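#lab-general

N.A. 3:47 PM
ok so I finally got the sequence cleaned up, no stray characters, all 332 residues accounted for. can someone with queue access submit it? mine expired

B.Y. 3:52 PM
send it over

N.A. 3:53 PM
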Amino acid sequence: MKVIVTGVAGFIGSALAERLLKSGCEVLGIDNLNDYYPVKLKEARRDRLLACDGARFTFLQQDFADAHTLAAALQGHEFDSIVHLGAQPGVRYSIENPQAYVQANLVGHLNILELARRRQVRHMVYASSSSVYGSNAKVPFSVDDRVDHPVSLYAATKKADELMSEAYAHLYKIPQTGLRFFTVYGPWGRPDMMPWIFTSKVLAGEVIPVFNNGNMYRDFTYIDDIVSGVLRSLDHPPADDGTQKPGGSVAPHAIYNIGNNRSENLMRFIEVLEEACGRKAELDFQPMQPGDVQRTYADIDAIKRDLGYEPTTPIDVGIPNFVRWYREYHDI
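B.Y. 4:20 PM
back already:
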């Protein structure tokens, strides 16, 4: 099997591509290596994949939001499936630079859908986000919940992606699975995310901003568990049989949560991080930030029932793993 992975130099994309290569698959990786965070980290992830299996890994530095150059870059390349993980991430940055989200997450998603339609792929798996649940007060969040009230533009673009995918599944019978990821963390993670930011500040003896005065809860999901869920999804394209899928579609389009199925208090996360770092954190309690939500918590009954997905990594294991990697990566 040959799989396109967009965002292949990103956190989840590179981890997925590595597992695919180790399983014997060929990977055609697409990434524009933009400078939203340091490019050297993305290049290091890409280089690990080339070292893993340069014969079965092909890398294209390409912006998938540019339909013309994307089509030209893919001429002569064959592939069976697409895992579309590339996007402009980040809730707070969407307030500063909304145009980046429209281009990458809306135009880019449409371009990948058109690619899937033209090439008649076996299955397209794509990244959605727990952010689509907005300020949903019902927990845990279920794929059957209404998600009509986003609290950030990032969340709105991800919900729009799901709607576009539903339309293409209905019109063109393209099997698709949307995955709502919940707070992914682990080795080779993103510098703009809380685990990286907090770890860097604790080790440097700097003050940590703690929003909503610490009354925050997140379903922290370790990268290995996320990748396992993506692979299980990739192997099970939804059937075009008229039955209702998770998320409500009767087209060949399913939506699943991928989370740890636990909502951890932020202060508990900080305690585990302090122990892993071997020092206390300096805390600066602040109010809730615009676009943020107080709690995330994944109901994973659907993906557990349909695909046998079962997360195995608690934060007591995952955070120390991340801190060890962070020290090695920065040689500290």
